Amino acid sequence: MPVSRAETRQSLLDVARRIIVAKGYAAVGINEVLAEAGVPKGSFYHYFDSKDAFGEAMMKSYFDDYFTTMDGIIASTELNSAERLMRYWQYFYDTQAADNCQGGCLVVKLGAEIADLSAAMRVTTKAGTAAIADRLERMITDGVADGSVSVDDTPRVTAEALYDLWLGASIMAKVQASPAPLDRAMTLTRRILHV
User: Fold this and answer.
1) pTM confidence score
2) Which residue ranges form the domains of the chain, and what is each CATH number?
3) CA dist., res. 148 & res. 26, Å (int)
4) Cα-to-chain-centroid distance, residue 81
5) Could you give the angle at the alpha carbon of 61 between the alpha carbons of 76 and 40, nearest 5°?
6) Which of 6, 23, 82, 112 is deepest in the core (most CB within 10 A)?
7) What would the pLDDT profile of 104-120 be if each residue is shown by its tens digit?
8) Number of C-alpha atoms within 13 angstroms, CB side, residue 139?
């Protein structure tokens, strides 16, 4: 059965994500992605208008997958709000502690790099991280409402501060090749949420 254009496009995005999370955006050439995906050389522009458009699509695809996971945690009816929040932070921890703390988060891997290279990728990443903060804010608000969480600031400020904390901890875990910064982030998260 022939593979559709959409399936080939998604395959290119998936392969690129795997390679780029290991090497960085600038270090990966289009031909490497095409070869790894088994797509003929020279057909890249059949699927993407430019490397920038490709990078933007890759980030959107990454965030879509991330939101699916996050929304699944939010929808866990067997858990109270505090448990859902801590399940999310454990997911974040596990993702970033993987592969000797090299992690799999494209925001951690590419945030600073793409902010200088591609306005389109920066804007997509800004929107994606804001949507993560929106979901965290909702979980914190729910936790305050059901009494399983208490915070000393607004749910929005708390959500943004925690996400910033975890991004920084993820970078330091990569630098140190140790989960110690993630352990500290988890401890501080529990203190901030009073759970």
Assistant:
1) 0.91
2) 51-193 (1.10.357.10)
3) 44
4) 21
5) 140
6) 82
7) 888 988 888 888 888 88
8) 30
Half-sphere exposure of 63 (CA within 13 A, CB side): 20
- As a whole number of angstroms, the distance between CA 40 and CA 53 comes to 19
* CA geometry: angle 126, 129, 132, nearest 5 deg: 150
Report the run of H or E that residue 142 belongs to, with start and end.
helix 119-146
User: Whose structure tokens read 């490497």?
Assistant: 32
Place of tokens 């997911």: 91
Residue whose tokens read 């920038």: 52
**Placement of tokens 């501060």 in the chain:** 161
Q: For residue 2, give the DSSP letter.
A: P
Burial 114-142 (b: 16+ CB within 10 A, else e): beebbebbbebbeebbeebbebbbebbbb
What is the C-alpha separation between 96 and 138, in angstroms, rounded?
23
Residue type, 175: V
Q: How far separated are the first and last CA of the chain, in Å rounded?
A: 52
pLDDT digits (tens, 9 = 90+) for 14-39: 999 999 888 888 888 889 999 999 99
